[in-house]
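Teaching note: in complex prediction, the entire set of molecules is handled at once rather than each chain in isolation. The prompt given to students was simply: 'Predict the structure of this complex.' The entities are:
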Amino acid sequence: MSRNIEALEETLGYRFKDKQLIIEALTHKSYKQPYDNERLEFLGDAVLDLIVGEYLFHKFKKSDEGKLSKIRASLVNETGFDKLARSLNLGEYIFLSNAEENNGGRDKPSLLSNAFEAVIGAIYLEAGLQKVQSIAIKLIEKNHKEISLDSLFSDYKTTLQELTQARFGITPEYKVVASRGPDHQKEFEVAVFIEDKEYARSCGKSKKIAQQEAAKQAVEMLNKGDASE
Amino acid sequence: MSRNIEALEETLGYRFKDKQLIIEALTHKSYKQPYDNERLEFLGDAVLDLIVGEYLFHKFKKSDEGKLSKIRASLVNETGFDKLARSLNLGEYIFLSNAEENNGGRDKPSLLSNAFEAVIGAIYLEAGLQKVQSIAIKLIEKNHKEISLDSLFSDYKTTLQELTQARFGITPEYKVVASRGPDHQKEFEVAVFIEDKEYARSCGKSKKIAQQEAAKQAVEMLNKGDASE
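The expected output is the structure of the full assembly:
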């Protein structure tokens, strides 16, 4: 099977000298080769932790370690990397077994996220930290319009909508299922539905807070579903 | 209070251009300054994860991701960094409050490990990855005579002995408290005592395996004790 890896290199803004390296980064373990992308994923994971950590260190000069960790955790995770992988159409280039292919492998967040980490690991190996830093930061800034602690929370609703649209072609629905307490101290209970199935419910001091917390839980459930497949 | 930071720089093999940077890396939050070492620790933590990850990636070319993760986890943790910090006499240079000083702060593994990460973060910021890589790898190779999956296990006994000697001036004692099963399938239960107090017990197919597992648990208990102080 041949893939137009040059198109991917074009999108990445990086041309590999060692073509075997990018092939390894794109090879899922199901593809039964003497190599797969798990070692490069191991490396890329650490590379991304440092790149994002340093980026936030400089961007938020007044934030303490706890805040930096929280913001990083919101970017450096399967959902975040899945998003970056999709922006590169990485799924098209992955080498996987027919069984995994038929199982929707090209569209699985875990698989896409791992391949993204592996590609970053491969660029790091060949071109060094500075090069891979500029590539990764460009991607992150393009795909996360606002990076801040305040925007984290609201990101869950956006993330969930992107996820359900990609996967089911629909947007999630939020319903207030209960409200309690006196007016000045009201609490809302909100449930989130995807295709009329309730995925999560959560309480909060405002509908917005409850929606976002419910969205967060739904995102985690959807992603966990992938991992266990 | 003045400290001979030049002596530390000598040991590190690195002279800081920005002296404020190393001072920040050595400042515990108890010392009530407008800065402390927690942001640099955040950065250094990621730097060390990458340095050690890449080191193992190249050293163990045939090992899969799971094995690499395990070996890294055995090096990149509080006990491991505490050991490296002590090899630099880092405790002598840390700025902390009188209260923390009287509380044995200079000798706490958590405090030492954090300061070590912060120093690595500071060198990275000023001198870049390559420089800090060579410093960290030299330190790790000097302090971990054998880095491999096989040696991990036996390291726990060594680590525990170093810990109890530094802290209590004694070596731990291991006693076989039970052995079960037929000769060809015997299982041993071993308990580890420090100052006649039992700290942990564990079973294994050989006395050695049981000892090492018990040592591991004791190390974790001793370190947890520090964190909660």
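Point out the following to students. The beta strands of chain B are 173-180, 187-194, 197-204. Chain B touches chain A through 19 residues (CB under 8 Å).
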